[in-house]
Amino acid sequence: MNKKSPKKNQHFAFVIFFSLITVVCLLSCGCDKMNGYSNEPLFREDIHSVYVKMFDNQSFRRGVEYELTDALAKRIEAETPYKVVSSLDRAETVISGQIESIGEQALTMERQTGRSLENEVVLQAVVSWKNLKTGELLINNKAVTASASYSRYQSQDFNYASSLAANNLARRIVELMEKEW
User: Fold this and answer.
1) What is the value of pTM for the model shown?
2) Backbone dihedral region of 125: left (phi > 0), alpha (psi from -120 to 50 degrees) or beta?
3) Can you identify the CATH homologous superfamily of domain 49-176?
4) What is the pLDDT of residue 4?
């Protein structure tokens, strides 16, 4: 019994020492910088108004640029503290962009006939956001992509999916307007 007792004490001391080292390491990891929750707003507080410029369209599909511009203006109003203004003279910032491509691809095919059951519309755009007071580019030609699917068997068509994809793209653009963490 006497020979096992020192080994038990050594083992117990090792476990306590290892536990203390682990606790110290875990506590020190969280002290470097606040990476968790914060009370800071997601959007810049020095900006109050945005002018949404009509998006250019480099694709052969027309009309999507109107849907994207409209969806972006509505999302900015609804999800940010910024006010969308109709005049460039009254705006503090301007957001603009260009639709690079509008693609369509089949997601699922019917085995017997080879017809597509479900298709996907993919919108790709490049976005810029400029502070008119300082000339600073808040977003500098950032590529953004969004998609939406549709099925002719559910009485949906390309226009339905392109409208959904434009709304998804507008949501992603608004996410880009958030401050970096």
Assistant:
1) 0.75
2) beta
3) Lipoprotein like domain (3.30.160.150)
4) 54
Across the chain, the runs of DSSP E, i.e. the strands, are 49-52, 56-57, 83-85, 93-109, 116-131, 137-150
Residue with tokens 């301007």: 94
Contact 76, 52 (CB under 8 A): yes
Spatial distance between the Cα atoms of 147 and 101, rounded to a whole number of angstroms = 12
Q: Alpha-carbon distance 50 to 139, whole Å?
A: 13
Instruction: Report phi then psi at 35, rounded to 5.
Output: -110, -5
Q: How far apart are CA 94 and CA 134, in angstroms?
A: 12
Q: Assess contact for 69 and 26: CB atoms under 8 A.
A: no
Say if CB 54 and CB 70 are below 8 A apart: no
| Domain parsing of the chain, residue ranges | 1-30, 49-176
**Would you state the structure tokens that stand for residue 7, as one six-digit string?**
């080994």
Q: Is residue 74 a contact partner of residue 118, using CB atoms and an 8 Å limit?
A: no
Percentage of the residues of the chain whose pLDDT score is greater than 70: 86
